[in-house]
Design goal:
alpha/beta, Rossmann fold, 2 domains, seven-stranded mixed sheet, three-stranded antiparallel sheet, 9 helices, binds adenosine-5'-triphosphate, binds magnesium ion
Length: 272
């Protein structure tokens, strides 16, 4: 798989020392420094530093409950940090999301049960019809075709089905297709393939990689699977057990997946 990484070999930099650089450069989609999130009186994020390269594919890995979903929700503008600095495309995340530049596939994808699969995927475009007309008039780049997206995630045959007629894994695939329908500049995916078997998972990973390359979206993927992380991402960020801090940032180069996986594992074990 071709990667959008900076190709600086198997360099392994720990998070932190570079992350307090100020300002968003064009090279970054996300810049976070010292992010803290408190829930129920306890910290769920404890000073997270993160930079996501524009056009890159970053995987977030860490133990269950460490705060991965929380971090993704902050990037999506669905929650706000209690301390620290966070910008998405140089803006506060909620503003970036309001410009529809951010797609989210949550851990439990909510589909509208009364709509067919095809209608769920096309919904974001239908809801924003006026915006779509304005985009077209302004000569903006085309959106992916919803039918094509469904075919890409292997669901063309069930386009007319209702969500309750699908398996959990199929619903996750609908959510991935729906999130890509708006061709977001930043795609945030929270364990999108956790409910599918290994073979289907490999197929979907390939399809996600294809969507990423085709639409040049910046991707941040939360996953429990180190294998999935190094197979898909150009950068893997290891998080400590909760409250989350970044314990290591590992670049992955083609052919270097095994070495990268070992490095990520070492970062995870070092703080366990
Ligand atoms: N609504 C909430 N109120 C209070 N605490 C919460 C809430 N949601 C999550 N938490 C706590 O925040 C911490 C981080 O949760 P989060 O869902 O971000 O973890 P995660 O890394 O995504 O876990 P998993 O891998 O199991 O999905 C957990 O300790 C959890 O108990
Ligand atoms: Mg989670």
């Amino acid at each position: 798989m071709s990667r959008a990484g900076d190709g600086d070999g198997d360099g392994d930099e720990t998070g932190g020392e570079h992350a307090h650089e100020t300002g968003d450069s064009d090279a970054n989609s996300v810049t976070a420094a010292g992010l803290v999130r408190v829930r129920g009186g306890r910290r769920t994020l404890d000073g997270v530093d993160l930079r996501v390269q524009r056009g890159g594919f970053t995987a977030l890995v860490g133990p269950s409950g460490c705060g991965k979903s929380t971090l993704l929700r902050l990037l999506a503008g669905l929650e706000t940090p209690d301390a620290g600095r966070l910008s998405v495309f140089g803006q506060p995340p909620a503003r970036a999301a309001a410009r529809k530049g951010v797609g989210v596939v949550p851990q439990d994808p909510a589909l509208l049960p009364w709509l067919s699969v095809a209608a769920n995927v096309a919904l974001p475009l239908r809801v924003n019809r006026a915006g779509e007309r304005a985009r077209a008039a302004a000569g903006a780049p085309q959106r992916p075709d919803p039918d094509e997206l469904l075919a890409t995630v292997g669901l063309a045959d069930v386009a007319g089905a209702r969500p309750h007629q699908l398996s959990g894994g199929m619903r996750q695939r609908v959510a991935v297709a729906r999130a890509f329908a708006l061709a977001p500049e930043l795609m945030l995916l929270d364990e999108p393939f956790s409910a599918v078997d290994e073979l289907t998972r490999e197929q979907l990973q390939a399809e996600l990689g294809a969507l990423w390359r085709r639409w040049r979206t910046t991707v941040v993927l939360v996953t429990h699977s180190l294998r999935e992380a190094v197979a898909l991402a150009d950068t893997v960020v290891a998080l400590s057990p909760g409250p989350a801090r970044v314990t290591g940032v590992v670049r992955v180069v083609p052919g270097g997946e095994d070495a990268a996986e070992e490095q990520v594992r070492a970062h995870l074990l070092a703080r366990a």
